[in-house]
Structure formats: C-alpha cells, structure tokens
C-alpha cells in the first residue's frame, strides 16, 4: 500500500515537472532562436553535449554511490552509509578540481577547437564558462540528492528540478528583455537555477536523513575504490551514449556546418524531453526494485520491472504518437521562419528509436541493481563503436547529409534494445530469456495501432492544426485516443487494477 502511494506521489510530481519543462522549453526555445538565430542557439546544445563528455569523470562514482549508500542505510549500517556519503563528497571535490584545471584553458582557446563565427567567439566562451561552473557545483553536491532516493521521496527532487527550470526561465527573460541578446544568458540562467537546486537538496538531506553528515574522519578511500570498481563500467555505458548521441552536434558542426548543427539542436528538443521523461518514470521504480533485490524477492522484482516497462511505455507511446502526427504543424507554429520539413524529419528519425526504448529503459536499471555492469557496458560500447565511421560513410558517400547524423545512432539503439537488453536482464535475474519480450510486443503493437488510428483520423476528418488553438485541441483529441488504445493494449489486467487502485486512493475512494 505504501509503495503504491509513494509511486502515485512521485509519478504525479514527475509529470508536473515534465509538463512545466515542456511548457518552458517550447516557449523559450523559439524566443531565444528569434533573438540569436539558429546558428547561435546550436552552441547551447553543443555546450551541453561537451559537458556530458566531461561528466565521464564523475559518473564512475556518482552513478553507484546512491546504491551503496542506500543499501547500507536500509541494512541498518548507518555508520557505513555515512562513510560512503562523506567519501563520495570528498572524491567529487577532487574530481571537480581536475575539471576546473582543464576547463579554464579549454574555454580560453575554444575558437581553436570548434567552428565559431568571429562575432560569437566571446559570447560562446562565456556560455561555456557558465556551464562549466554549473557542472562543477553540481558534481560537488551530487551526493546530496541521495536523501530523496533513500526515503523514496523522489517527488521532492522533482520539486527542486522544477525550481531550477523556473529560476532559469526568469533569469533568461530578464537578461534578454533588458540587455542586448547574447547566448551566454542561457548558461547564466542554468547556473542560477543550480544554486537553488543545491540549497533545496541540502535541506532535504538534513530533514530526511539527518544521520548522514559530512565528516572528515568518515572519509575512506578504500570505500571510494570499491565504488569506483563497480561504477567504472558505467563510464563505458556513458561513453557509448556519447558516441551514439552526444557527438551528433559536434559531428554536424565539424563535418557539415554550424547552421545545420543549430537545426539539429532545435529538432532534438522534443526527443530529449521524451527521453528525460522515460528516464524519470523508470527511475521511480528503482528504489523499490533495489529493495526487492536486496531482500532476494526476484518474483516481485520481475513483476515490478514489467509494471515499470508498461507505465514508462504508456507515456512514451502517447507522447510519441501525438508528436509524430502533429510534428509538421508544430514546427510551423513553434519555429516560424525555419525549415519545418528538415526539423520534422530530424525529430521523426530520433523518435523512431522510442519504438522500443520506451519499454527497454526500465530494464536498463537491472545491471546496476544486480551490480553486473561489465558485460552490459562492453556490449553497448560494441554496438555503438561503429557509429562514427558509419556516420562518416553516409555523409561522404550518400546524399543524406545531416539526416545521416540522426539515422545511425537511432538504428544502433533499436538494434541493441531489441537483441541485447532484455536477454541480458533475464540472464542476470536468472529467469527465462523470453520473460520481457511479451511486453515489447505489446508496446510496439500499441505504438503502431495508436499511430495508425490517429493518422487515419487526421486524414479522414481533415483536422486542421494551423493555429495554436487548433493545434492544442487536436493534441488533446489525439492524446485521448492514444491513451485509450495504449491503456487497453499495453497494460494487463493486473496493471490496470493496480493503476485504478492508485487513482481511487488518490481520490480518497474505498478500494474493494
């Protein structure tokens, strides 16, 4: 009962955060593009991608620290949890120092490393400087986010992230409104939002887990090595993601041109948000799944995995359907003056990866829960290692141009999520290799059916979406249709009953 109540609150907060971020992103992006132009806006996405490369230095520790602290905490070893906590903080401080030493010369010599228009050099350098400082502050304070994970109060993290988005918006609007337009305001807004997030996470830690205190005498370098030995394989996974997706804008910048890099950056806005939602929804199940594994309750863990796959898939199917059906109209309204066909095709190619990843995202938690990351990470790396040469070949020898940059990572993602992820998850959980494939089939069927019905209705009824009012009315209609289809075809009886019980409890009705 408690788990379902926590899941309800966490999921509601996550969806509210997602909705706010979507609203801010959709309103802010065209505003910034209109002020700066597509080329300048492209450097925002490029800077964030480069920051993701730098995060390889911290992910080995931070990706597993929460697991080690949580398991020690729930096993009653509060002193050991505190040692993990303090050790993680000190190690992150040292890593942040290394990042600062490297970031300073990189920022000062940025125009020699990437293509930057002469009139944007100083502005882009300041953008990178603000984002590097943000990364350093975030790295040092990452351990403070573990409190909401330990207590399964992830809705508080959603509130903190919502605060980040609002502060970022306010800062950017003030600077763009009263000063000459500059791309560095985006970085400054993110930095200001980060200060609020750190403050809130500190308060959460003190309130939820007062036993976890940063103490110098609790620092243990052997514990840091223990966590690094486990988390180093997450670096390989992150490297795979960088190769497959993070290099998109850099490849576009170096091999095509900055303008098309900017178009790619704009087109990735919706897929990035959907991908973030998938990670958030699947992450809501992670605390309970970790507890099930620690207690040896494999049957409950497998059921929770399937439930997580279906719930994550439910939202992904609905959003993907609406986005694909209304994508052309959306870009015409959202980015007037840009090439809507190019933007739509680039977005559509990336969204095709969600045909399977919406169900697979939850399964990607399994190797971390079981602490068997080596084979998983190496296999993913092998899947993606061919991304760069394949992209280069398509750019050089086919007319695909910028579309090649989107096609290759998406195709590799689909291949890996279909052939490897479910089988490996089944293997390390010691269940049948076909355990999770029925959910896959239901998920794909739900997606195809939802798209077919919505596209058919659009062409049959000639529904217009040429104004924002008509667009939102159409979006509501297609959302309702896709939701009903997905509810009936993706969720099983048990999942529908559980979901209905959650809704009834939320409405304070009696559960029979």
Could you walk me through the main structural features you see in this protein, from its secondary elements to its overall organization?
The chain has a domain at 1-232. 48% of the residues are buried. The protein has 24 helices and no strands. The protein is mainly alpha-helical and 512 residues long. Helix 9 (221-246) runs parallel beside helix 18 (374-384), helix 10 (248-256) runs antiparallel to helix 11 and helix 16 (354-363) packs antiparallel against helix 22 (437-461). The model is unreliable at 508-512 (pLDDT under 50).
This entry's quaternary arrangement is: single chain
**Number of strand elements:** 0
Spatial extent as radius of gyration: 23 Å
Structural class: mainly alpha
Biggest beta sheet summary: none
What percentage of amino acids are in beta strands? under 5%
Low-confidence stretches: 508-512
